[in-house]
Design goal:
Shape: elongated
CATH class: Alpha Beta
Number of helices: 4
Structural class: alpha+beta
Order of helices and strands: EHEHHHEE
Radius of gyration: 16 Å
Strand content: 25-35%
Distance between the termini: 29 Å
CATH topology: GTP Cyclohydrolase I, domain 2
CATH architecture: 2-Layer Sandwich
């Protein structure tokens, strides 16, 4: 068997955080969700059945949670920090696709969420 590409998926991670440009956003806070697709070779884990041969969801979550706890004006900035930390912590990550959405943003529109998405490869 030859794996062409392999990804770890983490979907709809939900956080309450204080990101935003408007003053009320940093005081009141809001609900955010994150979707991740992390490209990593986990072919060893197929045979070993050991978490050491793949990427631990729990370890990824811990990093994301720490970054979400740091208030920022822009979601772009939050995503950039998350990606930088994940690349620094896990050398086996080749690529990360991340989407960060803010529920019901204060923009004067009837919208479920608004956010950003980026696909980043390791340098």
């Amino acid at each position: 068997m030859k794996i062409q590409n392999s990804y770890i998926l983490i979907n709809k991670l939900t956080f309450f955080a204080y990101h935003g440009v408007a003053p009320q956003e940093t005081k009141v806070g809001n609900e955010y969700s994150i979707d991740l697709r992390i490209k990593v070779d986990y072919s060893k884990a197929l045979l070993s059945d050991e978490v050491e041969d793949t990427l631990s969801y729990a370890d990824v979550f811990t990093i994301i949670q720490k970054e979400m706890d740091i208030p920022s004006k822009l979601l772009e900035h939050v995503c950039g920090r998350i990606v930088e930390k994940l690349f620094a912590e896990f050398h086996q990550i080749e690529e990360i696709k991340i989407a960060l959405n803010k529920r019901m943003p204060p923009m004067g529109a009837d919208v479920d969420s608004a956010g950003v998405e980026m696909l980043v490869s390791r340098d």
